[in-house]
Amino acid sequence: MEIKNLSDKELLNKTSILVKEEKELTWKVLQHLQEVDRRKLFCDLGYSSLFNYCVDYLHYSEGEAHLRISSMRLMKQVPAVKNAIEQGELSLTNASLLSRHIKEQEKESGVKFTLEQKTELVKPLHNLPKRQAEKVLGNLKTNPVRPKVKIEISPETQEKLQKIKELQGFSSDDQIINQLLDQKLKELEKQKNKMEEKAKQEKTKKEKVSLESHTRYIPAAVKRAVLVAANHQCQHVSQITGKRCQEKSHLQVDHLVPYSFSGSSNKENLRILCRAHNARYAIITMGQQKMDRYLQ
What we know:
Blueprint: H1 8-39, H2 50-57, H3 62-77, H4 79-86, H5 92-109, H6 115-120, H7 130-139, H8 155-168, H9 173-206, H10 220-229, E1 251-255, E2 270-274, H11 275-286, H12 288-295
Antiparallel strand pairs: 1-2
């Protein structure tokens, strides 16, 4: 039956059913994207990120891809988000707003939200339009508070702090401690610089080691040569689409025959892969279950 031939009641009922089915389908899409991301399957098609796969291969707009990916990753972290999206109580828009809100707050304060804090933010956003959700998040005092630390000190230490106050004119113990910590940090930084310089010298010596022996170490000159040969781009070519990965950042040197399988570190056994394709090859070689421990 054509839509124009439906009665008013039938049209409203049918529309309600379709919206419910649409929400259920969106939930299933998020589940599938989460598993594609876990397995890094987008790499098999020549993509270096889930976002590029969603835009270029699934033909989502950039905004649609962002909403789905940010919602999917938040629901992986917070079970309450997963349940709310599944029940149709939390829109992808509001889930994405919440994800951005948490990241901004954590960056501003320098303190990570706990799972409980994230969970508390979910329910107030249920069934809200975007503008109201933005207002709710803007009004919520969700900044993680840096706890004040109480330090127990001996009477002898307290006397020393008091003498420093009198001699240098400090008004609080906190000022004294800050100055002492600054001095100590400078000393440690000098020690670190010396250690790094020593390590650099040791590295230079190692570069003279013969590559004939089975070693994981790859001299800088060899890495540069492999990178130049790859034209500073990931060398993975999809066997499915024939597409070469376009990623030119986050590049890593990878062994064609894995080092763990007695692969050498000679130039002929090396290639350039982006971080995502390197992870995908590790999954294929070592197995998903083993790599989940490192990639999650």
